[in-house]
Each structure stands twice: as structure tokens, then as C-alpha cells.
Amino acid sequence: MNLQSELNKTSLFSNLELLANQVVEGFISGIHKSPFHGFSAEFAEHKIYNDGESTKHIDWKLFAKTDKLYTKRYEEETNLRCHMILDSSASMYYPEVKDLSATNLNKIGFGVLAIAALMNILKKQRDAVGLSVYSDSYNFYSPEKGSERHHQMLLAKLSEISLDTKPAKQTETYTYLHQIAENIKRRSLIFLFTDMFQNSADDEKIFDALRHLKYNKHEVVLFHLLDRSTEFHFDFDNTPKRFLDVETGEHIDLYSSNIKEAYERSVTSYFEDLKLKCAQYKIKYVEVDVKGDFSKILNTYLVERKKFV
User: Fold this and answer.
1) 77 CB burial (10 A radius; 0-12, 13-18, 19+)
2) What is the pLDDT of residue 220?
């Protein structure tokens, strides 16, 4: 899939700024106003001096006029730091798609295209983007940078991932999320693209890993990718079929109608638990049907974010 070509076909809002609900610390000055107040060159306001604070920034001229102690508070101008996390395990390559395009995506295709689209928006703002990719290991890590060379390197890596014909069979998402969380030291906006499929016994472990991502007060957005018709509703024609776990290799032969109701009930329960945990940890949860309209899904998220800025 030629990412730049496919991005040109999508109707993303070219002038829509991606801004964090919690504006985050950056390292390039001059673009975004930060609510984290330091002592930079731009004066913001006065605040009452409290006993024990440094006297360095007391406004003595104002003290002479009012006989009260105030300190000067300043605003830092910062850029956004953004880190993309992509699950590239075998289940993410479902459903099988021969020629990926913006109108014909599987889970991995949606993930790489969405990351590329977000990167383009961030690039226009001169924001810094990093990328982590995991499957059966922590395959790839690149820290947040804003250069054109870095941008092109990430695009090349994403293209390579989308075309992988032999993805790793298994993953332990929670293991690598903990490792990634340790790598992201400074406050950032984190996007996670995964189908969240793992052994049900590991549910608490993955919830704990999501909480770890919030440890350094990062803002986290989970794009939960699935083919809704088959992976949620279990919609298959009622003929005997062999269902294969692409990550473990295990299989089962059955009529889909025999377990459809129980399957959907179980998946619904897991999804509700996941949404509840995300709300509890203040993680933005975005459910994505990869067979839906790519531009509409991403635009809906961006417009919703804009409203709350």
C-alpha cells in the first residue's frame, strides 16, 4: 500500500489541527500554549505569593504599590509530543486483504494508514512524533522527532509493516505496553492501535498495562480495531467451517449458528469491561470497524477532539 497515495484519496480535513485535551510538554518553542507554567519569556499573570515559595519572581514594583506580595507567572510555548503504538501480531492482519487501499482495509491496514494520516497533521504543526511496534517482541522503537527525514523513515517502516506476509504469530500486549511506557519519559499524547485480543486470563494484566501508560500523566487514545461483522457479531453463513486461531494455530470445526449467541454475549461483556476500564483510567476509547469509512471514522474522532479543546 502506497501510504501517501492513499492519504491523498481520503477526505481528511487538511486544516484541522490535532490538539490534545491536556496540552503536553514539548521541546520546540513557539507553537502551542501550555497550561504548565514555568518561567519563560512571556508574562502570563500575577499570583499571590505563598510562604515558602521562591522569592526570585516576586514583583517588587507591584509590592510597592499594593503592599502585597505577588509573583509573576509565565506561559511556556510548547509543541506536542506524540507517540504512536502499533500492534503488528498475526491477528491484526485479519481479514485477509490482497490489495490494501483506503477503501479496502484490514486491521493492520487501518492502523498504518491512520498513523500516517495523524503524522501528516502533526507534521504541519511541526510536532514531534515517535513510533513503537510490537508483536512477539518489542520490534521497533523510535523516539519523538519532528524532522522530515524522521517522518519519511516512519512512513517507510509503516509501509513495510502493512506488506508483511509472515507476521509474528503471538503477542503479549501487556508485556510490551509496560516496556513502551518505560520508554516514554516526557508527557505525551499516545495513540494505541490494537485489536486487544489475548487470552481471557490476561484481561487484568492488559488493563494494568493501560494504566501504566497513564503513569506519567500521558494522554492515551485507544483505537480498538476489529472487523465488526465477523469478530463481534460472528456473522458467517451456516455451513460447517474450520475456525483457526492465527496466533496459536489451534482450530475448531463447527456451525457458526451454534455458538453465535454465546460468542456475541462473551465479546460484548469483554468490550464493556474494556470501555469501563478506559473510562476509569481516563483513556479515550475509540471503537473502529475496519470495514467502515476510513475518512469518516478519523474525521469523527478529530472533530470530537476539537470540540473539547
Assistant:
1) middle
2) 93
Instruction: State the cell numbers at 37.
Output: 507554567
Instruction: Tell me the per-residue pLDDT of 218-269, one tens digit each, with 9 for 90 and over.
Output: 899 999 999 988 887 777 777 777 776 666 667 787 767 777 788 888 889 9
Looking at every residue in the chain, the average pLDDT score rounds to 79
Length of the chain: 309
Q: How far is CA 43 from CA 64, 71, 126, 167, in A?
A: 19, 11, 24, 53
Cβ atoms of 93 and 109 closer than 8 Å: no
Q: Which helix (H) or strand (E) holds 5?
A: helix 3-9
Distance CA 194, CA 110 (A): 10
Locus of grid cell 516512519: 154
Q: What three-state secondary structure class fits 307?
A: helix
For residue 58, give the DSSP letter: B
Read off the pTM.
Answer: 0.74
Phi-psi region at 239: left, alpha or beta (left = phi > 0; alpha = psi -120 to 50): beta
Q: Are the C-beta atoms of residues 27 and 81 closer than 8 Å to each other?
A: yes
The span from the CA of 225 to the CA of 179, in Å, is 22
Q: Could you tell me the end-to-end alpha-carbon distance of the chain, in angstroms, rounded to an integer?
A: 33
